[in-house]
């Protein structure tokens, strides 16, 4: 990947994010508020427009479209990248390089899927008031599970840590 391509991709990501967030904030700021209690453990955009007594259908539609676009672009870019990495691994005869690429890609993919699923569940549950308690739990899990699993996912990639866990697991199995 060239420096020019990195700059183009970075500029595209920043500009798209800035545009979409500006639209989302604009849609939220226009609303008047008749409620003052945020029902989530933290404040996010969807929680803010739930404070309004006005019609928030436009906010919900834009939020869903924004989420689908963001998640789709993210997933497509990762698929393209991993397909290119797989193509290089297939054409390369270097076993060590292929093994390292597969380990790296698998851990990245595991962390990405954990983040993707927990974020998507939380975002989509905002649209269904009957699942308020599930949404609160999902929002807490979104901030705890992915960061909590990162050290485990990346740590298991390290041979020494993996061996130590296996040793501890085997000792516990023998004791029981």
Automatic annotation (TrEMBL):
The keyword Hydrolase does not apply. Gene3D superfamilies: Rhodopsin 7-helix transmembrane proteins. Keywords: Membrane, Receptor, Transducer, Transmembrane, Transmembrane helix. InterPro entries: GPCR1_Superfamily_Member (IPR052921), GPCR_Rhodpsn_7TM (IPR017452), Olfact_rcpt (IPR000725). It is a multi-pass membrane protein. It is found in: Membrane. This is Olfactory receptor 52J3. It comes from Labeo rohita.
